[in-house]
Amino acid sequence: MKQKETLKKVLRLVKPYKLRLAGMLLLAVITVALTLYTPILIGEGVDQIVGPGEIHMGRLTEVLILLALAVAGTAVSQWLMNLLTNQITYQVVEDLRDKAFRHLQEVPLSYIDRHQPGDILSRIVTDVSQFSDGLLMGFTQLFTGVLTILGTILFMMSISVKISLLVIVLTPVSLFVASFIAARTYHMFRVQSETRAEMTSLVEELVGNQKVVQAFSYEDRAMERFRRVNEKLRVCGIKALFFSSITNPSTRFVNGLVYTGVGVFGAFIAIGGGITVGQLTSFLNYANQYTKPFNEISGVVTELENALACAKRIFDFIETPAQTPDKEDAGELQEADGSLALSKISFSYQPEVSLLKDISLDVKPGQRIAIVGPTGCGKTTLINLLMRFYDVDKGQIFVSGFPVENLTRDSLRRSFGMVLQETWLKSGTIRENIAYGKPDASLEEVIEAAKQAHAHSFIKRMPKGYDTVIAEDGGNISQGQKQLLCIARVMLLRPKMLILDEATSSIDTRTERKVQQAFEKLMEGRTSFIVAHRLSTIQEADRILVMKDGNIIEQGKHEELLARKGFYAKLYESQFAVS
Question: Which domains does the chain show, CATH number per domain?
């Protein structure tokens, strides 16, 4: 049932190219018809020379000319058929991959959080490639194979009904062999696809974090994890290969039975004068042509099983519910005034595990709000809700007086500038990375932003300055330099609201003081949320929110919270205790 549903979805993908498909099917019919006409000509040619002293050169010449034209026509029509097949297949694959990648931009962050990047990568790249191979073979060989079988039976019936019945009686053996193998290969190839995705995910994780692996001497454990997945892939790969590899020998055995039966039975009929020698020759050719498609179809079935297993994984991804779309009447947040309010919001990543509970907060324009608390208390989750990376389960969030669900996500997020502890840069020039949020920024604007972030000096020392190409995620510059570029990116945009999550954690102390001064200037007149672990960086905040177990348990200025001698005071003393 699952295979049928997947196949229906594949056919829907092919529907836009129905004219090309019709042309391909027509060419397939022509190819098969000419192929099946060839044995008749060969048989007639044999009959023109088989009698003692009876060689009819005139008719033989005509037969040879027709045979040459039939062979040439078969070659041309087959070439055109393959050309159309390739066009349809790769167009469908392009559409499918485009659809999958477009959907990747729409899936909620909860899906990304629950799945390894390597698994998603495997679906979009590897599984689509495997699917295209099976689809290509299925188009070219499955249809022509079925046509050849049906056409061969008709041609054979026109020569001898008795021999044809013998062939038809042996046909179910081939069908049984093909269906028996197909029933087992689908499961094997599905497991192989899933294990391949697991392998891709593991390799992507270890390669992307090779420095961490080496720094913590994790090489042996990483190798053990790799060996375990690799062994699992080897076992399921051998099983899938075993079932797919017995297809050809099994069907060839059946082919041998059919050919032998036709040869022996047909010879007795020819001796009795039921058919001519030439017709027997044609019949033997048809026996070969009749059984050959079963070889191809069984091979195609194996490939299609693999393709459908891969297609199912792709469709499962594409059919993952997208994030809740913006309302049709959602408005654009043109000019945020910096005010923000939380009204009794609650949120949890998993329904059975409560996180944020009944939180209310009122932030005035230009206020600096610091958020502190132990790991896992909900600091980052609160930021994710402000940016609407996740939607609240209960309550409402207001920005500039508007409920966030009544605003488009794009306009809401453009009103915030984020600098996170975990930096992100794309493969491209330094200028392109700084201007990521404002691609039309002039070089002068980019340079000014870099100067404010104190990144200009190190950029000028780079081989090509602002045109220096950095690797994906900034692999060829230091962590501190990456963070300075991320800070410059926000300096360029100068949004009305800022989110700073340990934004200077990877910068040396001297540069940090300068950047903090730049932030002080940037935060003037702007609402700022500062997620901090080092309490020394947030003493000047207008309000400090102290979070624990998903609740705001204390709030106030630095001095007020110290005077209360509560949870914040204990956190502060633990960081600055004198030994």
Answer: 2-318 (1.20.1560.10), 340-576 (3.40.50.300)
